Amino acid sequence: QPGDLWVLAGSLPPGLPASFYAEVIDLLHRSGARAFLDTSGEPLRLGCAARPALIKPNAAEAQELTGQVIDSPADAARAAGRFLSQGIELVALSMGAHGLVLASTSQAVWARPPAVVVTNPTGAGDSLLAGLVWALQWGLPLVDVARWGVAAGTASAMREGVSVGSRSQVEAVRSQVEVIDLKPGTA
Q1: Contact between 84 and 104 (Cβ < 8 Å)
Q2: Which pLDDT score is estimated for 148?
Q3: Catalytic pick from 4, 26, 71, 126?
Q4: Please, what is the angle between helix 59-66 and helix 73-84, to 10°?
Q5: Number of Cβ atoms within 10 Å of the Cβ of 150
Q6: Per-residue model confidence as pLDDT tens digits over 77-120
């Protein structure tokens, strides 16, 4: 449906071509839907060429595709600029415990999580993406989108096992997330 949002995430099952996500993104574009992509390697590279609305690489994945070393938020903003120049609307470049750089062509922010005890980081990136999707669906400004994403990922990492934080846990973390403006594509 036009206006629908699809999240394409994870490794591809054996037997699917590396171009699978790119092909799905093309189909979604033709139907008027938006695609968010969270994968790695060749499927990410090919998927980026199809211009999804959002990509969520981690620092290692972005470094692999751009050839740029990513050791700081400024590095992440520069790498995000490379993806944005391909026609991608939003780049959510996750840096683990160091937070997230969320960038569009007009704005880039670094959202830093509070210092917390990480119990299990498995699934935190998925929760971060869920927080971003939720905030974008509500039409929130980029600063708030970044804050909700980092809060959801951080709340997830604080929990035992692979699970997500409750709404109240995410809100409590959200109030502690610091957001710093960066210069898009540079810094």
Answers
A1: yes
A2: 94
A3: 126
A4: 50
A5: 32
A6: 999 999 999 999 999 999 988 999 999 999 999 999 877 656 56
In whole angstroms, give the CA distance from residue 57 to residue 61. Answer: 6
Flag residues of the chain having pLDDT under 70: 1-2, 116-123, 159-166, 184-187
Q: Tell me, what's the pLDDT at 157?
A: 75
Residue 126 bears catalytic tag: yes
Per the rule left: phi > 0, alpha: psi between -120 and 50, beta: everything else, 161 is left
Contact 172, 147 (CB under 8 A): no
| Global confidence as pTM | 0.91
Here the contacts of 37-40 (C-beta below 8 Å, separation 24 or greater) are 37/8, 37/9, 38/7, 38/8, 38/9, 38/10, 38/125, 38/126, 38/129, 39/8, 39/9, 39/10, 39/11, 39/12, 40/11, 40/64
